[in-house]
Amino acid sequence: MTDPDEMLISEPIQPVAGTFDAAAMARGEAGCPGRFTWRGGEYETVAVLEQWITTSPEGGSGEVYLRRHWFKLRTTDGRVMTLYCLRQRSSGRRGGKADKARWFLYAVQGDPA
Question: Does residue 1 lie in a domain region?
């Protein structure tokens, strides 16, 4: 994080069904949710400002695997939020809610609610 106004959150979010970017999904990419809930509030995406992926090597095979799809977006309330989608969900061994989540709010610029 380079912006001093950005607050690290790192909490699961719940995308609203039917609001994903269908064109991105048709290309085999993660589709940014058009709306999602977090901490009891619903947020709507008005613009995707940036998007990128992160990868990492797998075992000793030398193959590189896609791990996360990242989206920096602006919401209707003016906040800039950074979300990420896990390409593969956690195995859930710990049993917590975050173990089942695929979408997370990484950081927020503006009032974090």
Answer: no
Q: Which backbone phi and psi does 16 adopt, to 5 degrees? A: -80, 125
* Integer CA distances (angstroms), 90 to 14, 20, 22, 72, 93, in order: 16, 21, 24, 23, 8
Domain count, the chain: 1
Which domain range does residue 81 map to?
Answer: 6-109
Identify whether 56 is part of a domain: yes
Q: Is-contact 56 79, C-beta < 8 A?
A: no
Cα angle 101, 104, 107; round to 5: 160
Give residue-wise pLDDT tens across range 47-102: 999 999 998 887 777 788 878 999 999 999 999 999 999 977 555 555 555 557 89
pLDDT in tens, 5-50: 899 999 999 999 988 877 777 787 778 999 999 999 999 999 999 9
